[in-house]
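dumping this here before i forget
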Amino acid sequence: MPKKPPPDFVAPMQASSVKEPFDSPDWIFETKLDGYRAIAVIDSTGKARLWSRNHLPLETKFPMAAAAVTQLELRSTIFDGEIVALDKDGIPRFQLLQQWQKRPTAPVVFFLYRKGKLRYFGHSGTGFSEKGLAEAIDRLRAFFTNKPPVKNRTNSHKK
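structure:
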């Protein structure tokens, strides 16, 4: 089967409203992060682009995030995540992210969502839409363990 190149952009998954909160072992819940939603698209040559949820370029606003994605040395990969600025306790603060664009003082991190529209990963061109969520999470965890420049920090979730 020939390898499929990833698309140039994938719209991020949007949150949906429910009437009341619920808990279920059949669902995975991730913490809401307060930052800029970002789609990282790495083409077949390894060139990484960062896009906002509205398909606006983010590389000039957050060059360190684009550089970190490029350093992963991946091809044909798309990640859905959130760019956040962390306070001294490691808590994402949107105000720090806004201030960072004028005066960088807080560390900026690109968190990857483990669910959603992660469609491609690595050289194979195999879409995650064809894989189970548990397998996708396992592959991401294995890939990012101890891989600079990524720090493997688990975004709290339940399954």
